[in-house]
Description:
The complex is a heterodimer of chains A (300) and B (267). Chain A is 67% helix and 3% strand. Chain A is mainly alpha-helical and 300 residues long. Chain A is globular and about 75 Å long. Chain A starts with 17 loop residues before the first helix and ends in a 7-residue tail after the last helix. Chain B is mostly helical and 267 residues long. Chain B has twelve helices and no strands. In chain B, helix 4 crosses helix 11 (225-234) and helix 7 (139-164) crosses helix 9 (180-209). Chain B is globular, with a radius of gyration of 24 Å. The model of chain B is unreliable at 1-10 (pLDDT under 50). The chains are: A mainly alpha (300), B mainly alpha (267). Chains A and B meet through helix 1, helix 3, helix 4, helix 5 and helix 7 of A and helix 1, helix 2, helix 4, helix 5 and helix 6 of B.
Amino acid sequence: MSKIVRGRPGQTSPWLAIPTIAYLFLTIGIPLFITVVYSFLQRAKIGMGVTWHFSPKAYKDLFILENLDGTTTFDTRYVKVLWHSFQYSAVTTVATVVLSIPIAMWIATRNESTRNILVAAVTLPFWISILIRTYGLRQIIDDNGPIGWIAHKLGYENFHIIYTPIATMIGLTYVFLPFMILPIYASAERFDFRLAEAAYDLGAKRWTVFRRIVFPSIRPGVIAGIALVFIPALGSFLQSDMLGGGKTNMIANVIALNFTQARNWPFGCALSVLLILLTLLLVQAIRLISKKFGDQVSLV
Amino acid sequence: MSSVKTRKLVNLRNFPTFRPVSWFVLFFLYIPLVHVIVYSFNSSRIATIWEHFSTKWYFKTFHNDDMQRALKNSLKIGFAATILSTVLAVLAALGLVRMRRLGSAFAWSLIGAPLIIAEIVLAVGTLGFFMAVHIPLGIFGMVLAHTAFCIPFALLPIRARLGQLDVAPFEAAADLGANERQILRRITLPLLSPAIVSGALLAFAISIDDFITSFFISGPGSTTLPVYIFGMIRSTVTPEVDAISTLLLLFSGIVLISSYVLNRRRR
Lengths: 300, 267
């Protein structure tokens, strides 16, 4: 490199970043590429892996079932899996928004030292093992756990939510709540609460103040939160596995199944490709929505 | 006048439902963790039914060879992935400042990929990659994969700190004739060091907590603690699961608090 230093002193040569880029290309770029390639191959006759015969069969298998007599019928199993994944993620997103707006606003209106403690309390779960958090929640909502005990005391003898879709959604909400609270809080913190006071003074009802004054200001946070909750929820594995039992398979559970017991790698890869495409589509959709409102939405 | 203002302010601070919902959320976030910790001291054989206080499951855990092996693997992989990812994160943070737009957009999309793409997709992709190039499923492969998703987390505090640095010491050093290398070694790295350690600790926390990637690419001899815990949860659940989980929580807690303290100091 030339000796002339562009930019400010102390800034190093851009070549320093090359090893990292090369490393990530190898460990992230190549695996993604291989996923796409494998999705167009056929499963190995025996054991794990693939055979190198090009075929769009994996994608056809997503929607079409070949009967034993050679006829084909529309296969609804995987469409249902997709639909359930969307449904659970959507419910989770709504639940996190409903729970996060109050706590984000509440934290934003505390004094500074309380605010710091509360933000730390909301951030901490982000760094704790999702496996342990999901396990802990399972112990809480188990029939023999505290929630079951309370339900029985209240006279609900047939109480049962563990291993149902509701348990999956509770689990997803539990795991992804901090991802919604933090961006909304970041927007709420910048909100000038005197505006709400002014509206209130001028005779607006509380709900009107919230809808017309407060909400537009925290909207960038809500939109960022929707992206940060909906996208990972769509690809989640542990909550439907540990809390939903076998009944509530989401996309990731079917991917996992095809790489373990079912040993159909091309099909698992086709589902992975589908999930990547959905993710990119959603990222783009969020970008468009935030543009429409003219909001500054930052995802990281 | 001031009394009117106070009344309105109190009114907004106490928007109906804000306080009860907030307490509910905090309770909801922490009660499962509290349950795990409390029930790790349960003498019963059944994890959900409380009998009486006992530390027997901790003793059992300390004498459980499989658990010990899994813990050792977690630490080995965690240390190796931390060192590798931190070095790569420092290089990326320094180099990307001056990279041209196109190159840095490509680099950031690679760095951000593990944060956006579902972990299971990268996990099975990595499994396919290892199979294709004949990398055996073991500690080496685990370190390779862990390093990849630890990089963005190690980078987080380093990048933030780099943006906050004052230009004065750099200009002074350059004026006094220091070359790029000297500035890097004597000024940039020392100023970044708290952020580097903080990033390394975050990377370590992410590595030892990882489940999904490890689940798919760990071989029989490279099972980590979370994969071992998952296996236990799948079979019979005794309070030993709670005891091991509590130890892992304690461990993550220490790492995170150190990272937080380091990040706070000298800011």
